[in-house]
Amino acid sequence: MNSLKRSSSRAFLGAGGAVALGLVILTPGLSRTPDAGLLEPLQAETTEQVAVEVLGYGETFGGVLSRALIPNADQQALILAFQEHASPSRLRVGTEITLRYRRGEADVRAIEVVVSPDELLRLERGDFGWRSSKLETPVWMDTMFVHGEITRDLWSAVVLNPDLEEMPRGDRAQVIDLMDRVFQWQLDFSRQIQSGDSYRLVFERQVRPDGSMRSGRIVAAEIVNRGRPLHAIWFDLHDDGVGGYYDLEGESLRRAFLKAPLEFRRISSRFNMNRFHPILNTRRPHIGVDYAAATGTPVMATSDGVVTIRGVQGGYGNLVEIRHSNGYVTRYAHLNGFASGVRAGSRVSQGQVIGYVGMTGLATGPHLHYELHQNGRPVDPLSVDIPSGDPIPAEFMPRWNVEADVRFALLNQAAQGPQFQMARAEVGGGELADGRAGVDGVGRVDTDAPSEDGAL
Prior knowledge:
Blueprint: H1 2-26, E1 48-54, H2 61-67, H3 72-82, E2 96-102, E3 108-116, E4 119-126, E5 129-136, E6 140-149, H4 154-159, H5 169-183, E7 198-207, E8 213-225, E9 228-235, E10 244-246, E11 266-269, E12 272-276, E13 283-286, E14 289-292, E15 298-300, E16 305-312, E17 318-323, E18 328-338, E19 347-348, E20 353-357, E21 367-374, E22 377-379, H6 397-414, E23 419-423
Antiparallel strand pairs: 1-2, 2-3, 3-4, 4-5, 6-7, 6-23, 7-8, 8-9, 9-10, 11-14, 12-13, 14-21, 15-20, 16-17, 16-19, 17-18, 18-20, 18-21, 21-22
Helix pairs in contact: 2-3
């Protein structure tokens, strides 16, 4: 009986407790949740302190170390370690030099120097002195799809395209330069582009952490000029990273010769078989074209070939002569100097710098005298019908057809509006790490290969 009473009593108290809890919850003005209070925030100090110095005008790397109160003995060791990978005397004004210390210690433990946009030099204190290492700035790949209509000029249509705001303005200008190089044999961007023309573009690029572009390459492009579409498809013929651009039929866009041997030029004298010579004061044939340009302007080989003459040649002054295939020879005269590695017997490629504009020999001012000879006779470089490059050989056509179809289809994606797609590192099985096929349709993204080079 007593045990029964105790049980009943507990049941009653339990029911009463529930009623009391209900009264607490339902009673106005009472807090629903007890306030446990707040703890004061804790400030945890890092184990490292960092100081950033900036190289000033006329200042040296050693001067920055002195300003940062680095001991003389360490300064000498740091400079020697630096010289293992780079020259401290070549650092530019504004270079950031980061000094790292352990908190509470006066001696610097590491120094980092940004030697270029793609390289960081790290100096670390070790058990046996200072050691150095060079770190490459990491990059990622992305593919850009964009199109636009030209209302004034191509520069404005690309650089001022509002849908490319994520891309640094300087990089957009580089895209135009690459477009110029791709279509330079079909179109003069400075004269033939007009309002109402349009473009579509698929472009690969390597992007640094700051958003700038390390390198880039056009994969496929279309320019509609005066209602006529021009196409360019990248194709790596020998699968060695050195490819070129072709139209939809597999014909090379590249011509055997560049239109001119230098980029920034003004024609000061044309090919003329009865020209009055300004120095000799007599009429004599002028069997070339003169391009007025500032002293030091780079001069490029207009076609692949072998250097046959490199040196002083009478009235020509400093001259480079190059022998090309199919009986062609080019001459570049009045040079101020020669490019490194250019000598008689050396091979040069189209667009390679071979020298620099000057006024050596019989010249009244700085300019380049350029000649083109075919089968031993001079021809006018501005009027000769320059042969095109080789088309895709028949044995490569099956692979070309597959890859060209994929890349041309990407242009339709560009027509849907400017966009960016991220690409990951290459993995096995022909897919990128995010599962997509690479933009070239074979699971490969490679922008280290050079694009077609040249000048208008």
